[in-house]
Backbone:
């Protein structure tokens, strides 16, 4: 019972903090991508401490709340499409033996999720349009996004090591 209570409480706290970070984009518009990235670190902590089920529930609830309530639909969609679920999926991708295949899956997942997310944004929410900037805008943004995804993978890997080795004991009193 104590473990279940901890999982529920931490899941609620992580969900609330993720929503808060996504709502912060309204005050700091340049955080459209930074805020979902920081939120994904919280999802990583939840996944590490409580397991995949709790992390998935928090990811889904954060995504739905952010998409329906957040004034910045782009930040909410970036979290829902990629950054929210990536720390969960990355655990399984990292278990594969071939490093090259891992990177193919990571980049492929990024491209598919971003294309689907922005398609939904453009068609359903009409929050973003790319027509005003020319025909090469979308491919150029996707190419730059791939570079960010690779850098994010390295950052997530380093922050997760830092969390496990140093911060975990300080925050939760666990080794």
Residues:
């Amino acid at each position: 019972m104590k473990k279940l209570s901890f999982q529920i409480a931490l899941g609620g706290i992580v969900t609330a903090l993720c929503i808060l970070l996504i709502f912060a984009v309204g005050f700091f518009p340049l955080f459209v991508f930074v805020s979902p990235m920081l939120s994904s670190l919280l999802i990583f902590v939840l996944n590490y401490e409580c397991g995949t089920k709790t992390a998935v529930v928090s990811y889904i609830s954060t995504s739905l709340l952010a998409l329906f309530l957040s004034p910045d639909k782009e930040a909410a969609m970036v979290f829902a499409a990629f950054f929210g679920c990536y720390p969960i999926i990355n655990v399984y991708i990292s278990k594969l033996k071939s490093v090259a295949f891992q990177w193919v899956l990571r980049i492929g997942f990024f491209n598919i999720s971003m294309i689907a997310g922005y398609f939904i944004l453009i068609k359903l929410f009409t929050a973003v349009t790319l027509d005003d900037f020319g025909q090469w805008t979308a491919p150029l943004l996707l190419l730059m996004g791939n570079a960010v995804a690779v850098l994010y993978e390295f950052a997530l890997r380093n922050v997760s090591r830092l969390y496990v080795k140093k911060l975990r004991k300080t925050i939760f009193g666990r080794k």
Remarks:
- The chain has one domain: 2-172.
- The chain has a mean pLDDT of 88.
- The chain is about 80% helix and 0% strand.
